[in-house]
User: Fold these one by one.
Assistant:
Number 1:
Amino acid sequence: MNDEVKIDINFNNRRKNNFLIKSLQISSYGVKKENLINILVTIIIYLSTFSFFYFLKNKSLYLDASNFTFLGFFLLSLFLGVVLSEKVSFKRDMEIEEIFKKLYFSFVVSLCSLIILLLIFKVHYVTRFYVLAAMLTGLVIEYYYFMIFNKYKQAKIKSVEHYKLSIKYLLIDGLILTFFCYIEIILNLFPTNFNEKDFVLIGVIYISWIISAATTHKFIPIVISTSRWNAFELQVKFYFRIIVIILLSLIFLQLGFSNSVYFIKALIGYSIVSSIISMFLFADKIKNKTDEATVVFLKAYEMKDPAVPNSVKKRIGKYAFQNIEAAESVVRQKIQFEYLKNYGEVFSVLDTMLDLKSFDTRKALVIKSDEPNNLTAHQADSLQLFVNLHILNDQVKLNDYILDVRKSLVHGGVFVGALLPHHYRYRRYLKNYSFWTANTLYFFDFFWKRVFPKIPITREIYFTFSKEKDRALSLAEGLGRLVYCGFKILDLAAVDDVVYFAAARNGLYEPVKKFFYSPIFKMKRIGKGGKTIYVYKLRTMYPYSEFIQDFVYEHNNLEVGGKFKDDFRVPAWGKLFRKMWIDELPMLINWVKRDLKLVGVRPLSNHYLSLYSKEHQERRKNFKPGLVPPFYADLPDTIEEIELSEKRYFDAYEKNPFKTDIKYFSKALNNILIKKKRSA
């Protein structure tokens, strides 16, 4: 009986396994079948358009040997476009934007491939404008097929006003394009020099205009753009994609230089006028992303017990000073009704940050001053609480001032200060002036207050004339200076466009000999054998950001890919530089100096290295870091997966170093160039 049961169970298990295998096979077949259908549709579309235009030219579908050879090149170029763009692997839940991008990329690759093939094999007997017309017509039909017949998910736009706005903008932009086509192309070429090639090229201009707009959401920037930097990036992509298609078409058609100039002038004129009008229409409507959300996010977070004496963490989130000398203090009443009687909101903020009753009123000081000598009258280690309501932006020799505050506080004492970050600085202009006047003034303010102090040649000029007053500080730099000078950030809050912070004296002050504010700077990293190396990078973070790495990790954690989540230390332009890999170009200096090799694990800071297991930390030190890490070959998501990826790389490298580096470099190159994986 037991044997029968076992046999029956085994039989049922086999049936289940067979069912699962068949299900997987059917599922896999379904995916392959859908891809196969897409391939067949693509071939049918382009063969049909090619045949149509070939018939228009020759009044026959008969292919001689030369045209049959060209048809082979045509199909080969289409195949390369399909493979490299992966456009046949569309999914039902894919948004239209992704479909447009793949079809655009496929068209560009196919056209480039066809140009190269025709040049290599010196094919001159083909009427090229018919071929280009066939490719463009096929592209339009492809769009229609994937958008309408397959009913893919379209991007959702919530408000009807956005549709009206996009239609108006489309009509305005179309009129601008038509105007420049007319004055630069039609007037100069028609009727004497206007031929079939020019007619096809005008069609290319309008089709590339529609395609590029669809892939970048040009006509709905308010809905799509997350910030003005992002809107600018999308506009650049739009004009770049138009230029690429038109230039490739000019090369393919072998248009004469004199005629090509008219098309290029029309394109340049359109791009300039269109971008200016776009800026005036939408710049004031696109919400500029700032670090204000970070201030709100950090407000009243649950703090860990600070490792300092004479302090205690209250359950409600307030920082309290454990007062030994005074059992009861009146400092709260003093601050509320005497020191801050005209600053009710500021007092409310302080009251949520700190348990004011726990401080000795005889060892508390509240001022509003930018004079550094206010602290000279106080002995070292004499204050439990120091409050200065004047913004740090006006303090002369800011680090020296913060160090003087630190010196006057007892260990665990609290410094409450104020800071005017960049985004509130910008908002100050918007409150006092109209949008374009405010942006014009802020443009000059940006260069004087933020660019000049960072460049060695202009730094002395800035400090000579500015007297270090009203200096531009980001939230990251302000907090970074505090941590660098030996403070621990307790809490933040924004009141009337000013950020108020509470920071406890904690830890030792370790001075750095020299800070580098220039665009290229050095970062302290761990190299082979645990040796300290300095890696060159283009600055994408605010100054002093490296000192709050622990702070950001503690409260923001890591996102997919091992990067810090919501990292307010990186401005919008920094994210753009990282996305385009511009920030890592100076690391080639380290490659020349042999601190880094071409392929290898990422050079890490002490903090980031500490996130790995102890065993992996030690093993990592046996290998030289590299420019191209295994991360871009395996694309792991979490810190654990990154560690596992590096372990696999080390295992393979120990067996065959050269082969492993070639393999990982090839995979990384494919992921970066073809699959569009970028640095975050």
Number 2:
Amino acid sequence: MASRDSDPGTVRRISVVGNLIGAVLAFCYFRFIDYAAADVPRVGIAEIVYSVVVFGLMVVLLQSWGNRWARPLTRWSGPEGVPASTVALVRRRALLFPYAVAMLTCVGWVLAGVLWGVVWPLLDGRFSAYRAVRQVFGITVIAGSVTTAFVFFAFESRWRRRLPVFFPDGHLSAVPGTLRLPVRVRLLAIFLMISIVPLTLLGVVSYTRALALLGADSSTATQIVDGMRLITLFILAVGVAAAVGLSVFAADSVAAPLLRLETAMGAVGRGNLDSRCPVVANDEIGAVAEGFNRMLQGLKDRELVKETFGKYVTPEVRDEILAGRVSGEGELKEVTILFADLRDFTPWVEATEPRQVVRDLNQYFTEMERAIRAHRGLVLQFIGDEIEAVFGAPLPHRDHADMAVRAAVEMRQRLRQWNARPEQAGKPPLRHGIGIHTGTVLAGNIGSAERLSYALVGDPVNLASRIQGLTKDLHADILISDATRRRLDAAVEVEELPAVTVKGRSVEVNLYRVV
């Protein structure tokens, strides 16, 4: 949708108010301060016609040029489907718009000074170089400068509310070919204007009245001094009003963006990372707002990494790794390893529709991982229908054997609950075997230069996998080794089984079935 503040009507209203202020200031200047520069015997019909025609032509020409320059802004409805060159043009003009409006105002007052201070006296036969300089000074320098400053700051304050329409993502400083008004220059310009203009007027008044006092009688001199007192009070009143008005605009141009930045920072402090600070200028404050938004995006990216990483490890492990308190370079750890594998998986896959297999596997893995996470375990990988998990790494836990056995018991319970639904539908239930072993392994980040995974290396890993493979032969769903049983602190009901020979080991292994 086109910006309402880019409507020429908005510019016209601000221009009318500003130029009216300038006209009143010019009238008061020539009426009370430098009245000799505008002293004419009469105002004739020719001067009235000239003024109306010239003023009308100036308004038409400047208004036409301004509307044509601002047309891309009034027609803006978004960057979708718009060529990149057009988008760049619109955004550049959006930043230059307040300067363009001020420039038109300044050009108008320069023309006014020339047309009424030079051209008309030439046409009227009353031209005087000294008087022309004084008239151009009063019209262009005094009234024109105040009007231009008022129009610029008033329109810029209004226009800043609409800049996010053209820059929803900020990045105002990246637009080439634009003017940049630093805060220091802005404040310095306003300070000079509210100090130099009143002082200049007082100087002119003092000079003109001093000339009038030369050769004046006492009565006339008294009137001149009394009039000078009133004029001084008038200049002070107008100067104070102008200083307050321009100071308000200057303060708003600095305080308002900082207030929005403070509000956005408060929202971030409360944990809301979706808030953004609108960038409404390409000065230092705008750069600060852009930097804040970049920092906020970095925080959001970091939270996304943490959230995504949390899907692979438990939140506690994630936070420890991101905080740098967990070493991935490799270290020897005593841990408990758990392997879980589905029984009769291949026949079940052959007899089930592929999409259903994927859905059932995902649901099964979800339930099993929840049980493992609930007891502070870490799922290292899913291999086909097999789960490999570790307890006691990367964060050390003294009771890692108890945690692994409790997790296995909960996995048994969750599988029973999950099987209730397919059994009601007449489908065969899923069965699994779980093997658990405790030992010392090498734990660390293992992989290629582009991809790493936290993994365990050592004979205990192989033995835990072999124990899981024996669950089918021994008709048990949870088997633990003697090393794990000796590390159990809690009372766990187990049944000792005959010692068995495991592939790759010459010594028989004592196993226990968790009852």
Number 3:
Amino acid sequence: MTKAEGESPDSRIENPLLQQTGLPAFDRIEPKHVEPAMRSLLADLDGELTALEADLGSTWERTVAPLEAMGDRLARCWGAVGHLMGVRNDDALREAFEAVQPEVVTFALRQGQSRPIHDALRELIEGEEREKFSPAQVRILTTMLRDASDAGVGLEDEDRERFNAIAQELAQLATDFSNRVLDATEAGAVWLRDPAEMAGTPESLRELAAQAARDDTEPGATAAEGPWKIHLDRTCVMPLLQHAERREVREKVYRAYVGRAGSGEFDNRETIERILSLRHEQAQLLGYGSYAELSLDSKMAPDVESVSSLLEELRVASYGEAEGELETLAGFAANSGAQEAGDLALWDVAFWAERLREEKFAYSEEDLRSYFPLPRVLEGLFGLAERLFEVRIEAADGEAPVWHEDVRFFRVSDASGEPLAAFYLDPYARPGHKRGGAWMDECVSRSRRLALQAAEVRLPVAYLVCNQAPPVAELPSLMRFDDVQTLFHEFGHGLQHMLTRVDESLASGIRNIEWDAVELPSQFMENWCYQRETIHAISAHVETHEPLPDDVFEKLKAARTYRAGSDMLRQIYFASTDMELHKEAPATSGEDAFAIQGRVAERTTVMPPLPEDRFLCSFGHIFAGGYAAGYYSYKWAEVLAADAFGAFEEAGLDNPEEVARLGRRFSETVLALGGSCAPAEVFESFRGRAPSPEALLRQSGLVSTS
């Protein structure tokens, strides 16, 4: 590689992406910095890799440590670019990202397929030096060798060349897939102009949709008179489906939502088939029977059969319940005199489910939002972290450059005030520029070796990203209860990254943890949303400042298992579809991806999807994220999370001493150990036994609690 054309001698100093100390300079990073920064960095790393291969030693410091440092520099620069692609996406950034992505993939493949490095790592783990390594170091070496094998280190000549071509194409296809979903979400927005079309919808949605219209082409749009622009993201779609009284409006929005990126200019259908074909070919080159086998090689679940067994156990437990829930819903609609009662459609379910919830539990999701302003939720969440894990979280806005004015920055310390970590919080949806969903990612990993001073430890920094409704008028962001649980979920991921005690960066925090175990702390944290002390701490009515009343809290708890069978079955549908798509060669039975989806739906849905349903075309988790042949991980880890929370329930959630004791143990095991040992060992070190699915089924109301 050569220095980027036009790069001045001082450009490396001036380019904020090449800043290797402190936090990323998000206030200065622009698309124009991406290509020169990455090409300069990759040229340096390429030279360092060549030098390392020529002078490998038989010690950790001469083999693994240089690889760790090189990977850290690449992750810092390319990670910042990838982060901005998710939260501040635009055409210029896309162009720059796609220009250098092939070079990044080429370097990663070259390092992963280095025979000298692979042989040196094997010598380390098999030689006399092994006795000097910690368990974490042995696990790191084992993982590095496995990853090298799955990166094609054992391939020769034509097979390696083909493997690398596939890797390049898959990287580009994933980027294309994600960009099309983002574009389709914006371009496919549904415009509503008649106030009658918005009948029944909450004021918050009307104001949000009017603001979207004002930002587009209608500067005079108002919440009362419209027009309204309904973006095809859940922030807009779900409130409309739950509350819009006009059935034809619900149908229009529902069809647009499930058809996103499935036709026209932003069509992902061919991309899906190509991705599946290439993944299968890649797995076969490595000697696996399917991509599912390749995926599970690095996961906690031992094989495809084990995953299928868990999914089937949960399907059997939830299917009959889901059928009964649908029958109840149809009966409720009929008794309400609705014209659709005898022909309940997919776009009717959320509306009538919300009406039934309101009657059954005497509260509505929209009413709850007034009790959950974001500042109060954060205050209560941080208080819970202090109570459980003996940490303090304080706002540090202005101490770190941010990529958008709405982004917050916080610092985490222990009970004595000793700094432990920090994190960014980007809470609000920005359709068209920020991808949907919610996620946590690492900005900086914990490391002793990579610290600036030898006697110090470099502290971790996390990104927490959500997509809730932004503040409207003079009101703060009012959160749906689902948004609250999402925030708790992502914060749980963040805690595992931030409270790690592992000083080896290759196994600290969320690193080196099997994918189907990494959701344990996130789903564990969601459970606290249903604990009385927590709900009082995170709720304060936006006008009266009173916490959520106890009687409403009891209804909220009772409603936790409302339609639990349907919710469980929906996740089984997604997970089973994912596994079926990846467990054999595409089109082996003459089926395309959508035929496979339909076949799975026959066993895992009680209302079959529309023939034109294209939800796979926006299923970024498996086609543009890390969940391919791994979406089951949510349920696998939910078993662990429910069982872990069960320890607190058994000890007594109203017993502060026991809660604090178990919180410390959870922090010292699940949060502290990270990827330094196998997740089964981590779980047993906390729980004292292997996990059981009984807690999850009981929590979901699918088995008796007696």
Number 4:
Amino acid sequence: MRRLSVRLLTPPLPLRSFTWGDLVVGLLVAVMVSVGVRLAVHAPPELKGPEISLSLTVLPWYALLSIGRMLVAYTLSLLFTLLYGYAAARYRRAEPILLPLLDVLQSVPILSFLPVVLLSFSAMLPQAAAVELASIVLICTSQVWNLTFSWYQSLRTVPADLQEAGRIFRLNAWLRFRHLELPFAAIGLVWNSMMSWAGGWFFLMAAEIFTVGDRDFRLPGLGAYLKEAAARGNVTAMGWGLAMLIAVIVVLDQLVWRPLLAWAERFKLEMVESRDVHASWFYNALRSSGMAGWLRATVLRPTLERLDTWCTRRFLQSAAQGSDERFLIWMWRAVAAAGGCALLYGAYRAGALLTTVTAAQWRDIGVGLLATLGRVAAALVMALGWTLPVGVAIGTNPRVAGWLQPVVQIAASVPATALFPIVLLFLLGLPWGLNVAAVLLMLMGTQWYLLFNTIAGVSAIPQDLKDTAALLRLSRADRWRTLLLPALVPSLVTGGITASGGAWNASIVAEYVEFGGQTAATIGLGALIAQATARGDYPLLLAATLTMIFTVVTLNRLLWRRLYRLAEERFRME
């Protein structure tokens, strides 16, 4: 027995490292960033939010405000994921644009987004609305990319027999989405939703209190409380803030994530019932609740039935009426021509802004790029070294999962940026202290993407394949070679690409740190972006951000995209 997965018999898709879509998307992002920078120049000269209190009495209220922003951002992230990922996976004409754009967007560092988004909104909206909307958008950018990659990977790896069943039953796009594609992707989406919330907590401190040049904005919330405590060097307040954050994480784990994991077990693709199932006392209580049953029967089920009927009618009407293809083609050409002209003009203005960057600054960008690339690679290697065996142990051993999984979920949700000042107290006095601390913070911010996707991949392995491996009495090495590693390839690729993007993002807060009124920085591209943001040096910010984007996109196209194709062609479950 060589392998427990089945290779596809279809010829592999042609793999091109770069396409015309990459050029268009690269120009588009450069234009967007430069337009945001120009809007930022015209933002109000003074931006000052309310003072952040470090009193214990405000912590519950701050926690509720932060949870509300996280919930709104997650809702927007999920909607974006379902629409964008579906379009990228299903429409071949859109894929050459949507996939490069997704690569670019997930590689844009959140702290490069922040001044552009915040100051652009400030130039167009009232201050209160601008800072609140900017905070939600920035939290959304830390949550959305791994969800989208997971959804896209699931859509591209739906087993062929399930797709054939959908065609036999003549499922329209809506019914195929609700009864086939979404259930197949449910386990991965739940685990990546947990990771998205962890990513939101990670950057919450940056999204709720921030300084750009002479402008200062802040929002009352748990992230602002922790960052203000770190800025004042108030270790006691940091301890209380972390305690409140951990309490919130534990409550969400018990009331939200564990029930969702238990609910998602019904969508596992298998021929025999799995014996390794997630348990949740709250989920069991909801299932046995008479009121919950009444709500399902009288509200949820009729609502879904009416939604199915309405969507089915809409698809039938669209198919019956058809469309004027010639008109649509000419409309598309007109829009593309207008967009192309605007894109070329914007690229010209962005190029003019980049000409103000000096040769010395470009040299610093090149040196910083190499330094940050080395730290990112080190963090990914260390993360993979421990997350793969631990993730497999959690996914295959119920006893280990019973006590280790809750610890992992809580640890992943505690933002490393909140713990980083404490780590710095011990490391700054050591040789290479800040370099070691920077790699450690990148590791703390990226390892969970790999771990959660590994657990999700192991959880999705059908029980009949596990039983087959047990009946054949495969050794541990053979079980890893023929079952675990082939089944985990799609999840590892998804975790790897999102972990890589997270590491580049984390470099900004890892290489430039403020604590107790002091600033510590090391050589790196992230440090340059943070310094340019703090000084309001917009040309340098644009140049460093575009350099990071180009580097991450190049790595994605040359490495991760090839691995995606490999996972799709050889390691999909059939």
